[in-house]
Amino acid sequence: MAPDQQQEASAAVAAANTGALHGLPFDDDQDLADERRGFLGTAADPLIRAAGGRVVWDLDAYGFLDRDCPPTAHPGLWRQARLVSGHGLFEVVPGIYQVRGFDLSNMTLVEGERGVLVIDPLVSAETAAAALALYRQHRGDRPVTGLLYTHSHVDHFGGARGVLTDRDLADGVPVVAPEGFLEHAVSENVYAGTAMARRAAYMYGAALGKGPRGQVGSGLGPTASTGTVTLIPPTLHVTTTGQTETVDGIRMVFQMAPGTEAPAELHIHFPDHRALCTAENATHTLHNLLTLRGALVRDAHDWAHYLTEAVQLFGDDSDVVFASHHWPVWGRDRVLDFLALQRDLYAYLHDQTLRMLNQGLTGPEIAERMQLPPALERAWHTTGYYGSVSHNTKAVYQRYLGWFDGNPAHLWEHPPTEAAARYVDFMGGVEEVLRRARGSYAAGDFRWVAQVVNHVVFADPGNAEARRLQADALEQLGYGSENGTWRNFYLTGAHELRHGPVGTPTTADSPDLVAALTLDQLLDSLAIRIDGPRSWHADLTLRLHLGADRPPVTVRLHNGVLTHVNGPGPAAPPARLDLTLDESDLRAVLLGTESLARLAEQGRATLDGDPAVLDELLGYLSSPDPGFAIVTP
Question: Which of 284, 295, 360, 396 could form a disulfide with 381 if both were Cys (CB 3.0 to 4.6 A apart)?
């Protein structure tokens, strides 16, 4: 859209943005200092060009962000955009440097005995070469003695040939990546690459002018560069957590984190620098569980688990945490708090989505109800600048239950184009649609009847005529179904509309299945049942002692999230209850088939502390509804 066709913000939008400005914690300006910390300088020429002279990156393109936020932008996003547009070379700690603002992602450089290890060489070879040149300008002409990809997304490997040559590879310079990197990098960027790239143009605003009424950034970074994307296959794979490697004298301890922000991803601890790199799993925004450009749905449960594990493995030995986007966090206590809040963010979205879907809510319904605990609402770095609570909630739902919400009326709907034509016809034509803003017109197509009448049933479930017509339509669709499960869905829906709910004849949590759960799985299943809003302000810690040959299990309810770790953990507060018993007895107590008091009376359990802690914890559990409505609201 040309500038002269763009509109100013409406009064309503301007008022909402002004309201947001007053509601955000602008008194917390720690990020402003952290983003500038360690700045050494930036490039003299703001334009990075391809071989033919085409500009692939402009460092000055976001200079307009230095102004006050206009009514045409949300003040929180404007603040984030200003932070991520800062560009130059920054010292993280002596020996570790980052080039930021030269692309969507950061390039990290770790100095070794002879040269420098490059981590995540941006999107394009041109921007990566410019970033390396800036580093050398300030730190000397060191050779690249290693290349490391933290994960399988293009903004972390695309600039590989901007920092390594074929001669370097022939000389044995290692290229390090997590197991599965190449498979996932190729499958994501080749198999579905055309569709993803088309949608990425929307996601990153490639066609928009940069300015107050156009593109102001993506939340994760400014945008993606448009240079040459390259890929050098790994020569050294990281396969296990705890694996150690030394490249050019740089000691690294790795943590595998597959299925999180990327299918193949790892974290890196640098013990000699007391520094932790979390790749893209702990950044200064709520990330995507399903990116809008399209990708595999990410596992929020594993995401939270790996952040918990990172704290356990490296929390006591880290004075700084940095990532492949945004700016670092310094200080052990701040590092632990940052990682814990990031963990709670993904765990809360996962557990509460599962809790509500087991009560029969669909993805859109859960998204409308989902609200973060106050501690997560107040933190800048848990705000949805890139991902959002709404679409991440739907992503969790999709991961577990897929696109189908269980309502047979939605099983074989007309696709969007055909449905749109019928909607317009049903509403009396384009002019009538515009005049009445969605009128209605009935069609004799059974699929269409089921799709349309379903809205009436959900708006007025007591309407007998709507229920009768919907049941007749579902029945006819069932009769015409070649697929047995489709037929069963349709006919069961018709039956319930006519006669009421039939309940759930099978039990998912049978004794055999429950007995097969590991203790970790059992505790995770309880976390899903925690009523988040009721437990927002609870802070309960208990420690479970299950035998002399096993480390204690520390269980904590905090910020509406139930977490557990083996051992006390560097971030765990003192336990209010230490409980010693056999695992089988613990299982019985957690499942409600045994009384802790009775176990204590029998000498089968020893309690040190307040026994009410466990009762309070179990009191926050909600129950799933095995008979929730499907064809009615």
Answer: 284
CA distance 530 to 563: 11
Question: How far, in Å, CA of 585 to CA of 604, rounded?
Answer: 8
Contact 606, 579 (CB under 8 A): yes
Identify the bridge partners of residue 539 per DSSP, sorted by sequence position. Answer: 558
| Torsion 30-34-35-36 (CA) sign | positive
Given a contact cutoff of 8 angstroms between Cβ atoms, the answer to whether 210 and 62 are in contact is yes
Rounded distance between C-alpha atoms, residue 475 and residue 283, angstroms: 51
d(Cα 125, Cα 3) in Å, to the nearest integer? 32
Element (H, E) at 468: helix 464-479
In 53-130 the beta strands, taken as DSSP E runs, fall at 55-58, 88-93, 96-100, 107-111, 116-119
The residue type found at 124 is S
- For residue 245, CA distances in Å to 148, 234, 249, 250, 268 come to 12, 14, 9, 8, 10
Question: pLDDT (tens digit, 9 = 90+) per residue, 56-77?
Answer: 999 999 999 999 998 888 889 8
d(CA 524, CA 142): 48
Average pLDDT over every residue of 610-628:
88
Q: What is the DSSP letter of 161?
A: G
Q: Which two tokens stand for residue 68?
A: 């006050």
Q: Residue 45 carries which DSSP code?
A: S
| Total-model pTM | 0.85
* 8 Å CB contact between 252 and 266: no
